Fold this protein.
Amino acid sequence: MYFIFILSAQVPKFERVSLGEYRIAALSWMFRKGKIAWDKLLIASVRHILKKYGITNGVLVLDESDRARSKNTKRIHKAHKQKYKASGGYVNGQTIVLLLLVTDSITVPVGFNFYMPDPAISAWTKEEKNLKKQGIPKSERPAKPETDHDYPKKIQLALLLL
């Protein structure tokens, strides 16, 4: 029976474990379309870990992380143009604001949010930079647009996580 698990490296692990019964598309569909309360599942999982290992104290830490995804993507949630530090170019990616519980023994993520810069502010900043380069005085340049509440800043997302 063990020979069943020695399959080609081309077949994803999920398909191997299900013995070919399910495809990776089925798993993808379950995560995207399933009515799963992911936030409540995360809270329950963290509580279970804390209870199981008897963790009673720790420090909450906020962190943000840029994840490069692709140069040409439209369907990834809150993907936006980012400076790619490795090559010096640009790539579409996601910025994730994380709330972590750091203890003496483990570090556990307890919450996260996706950040996306306000497109109106980004366009204004780009235009402002070009107008400054041309030597146009500030009084003749357009005013900074109002912030849109649909695009909170990283610090606001961090406060929501707390």
In short: Residues 36-161 form one domain. Residues 123 and 145 are 10 Å apart (CA to CA).
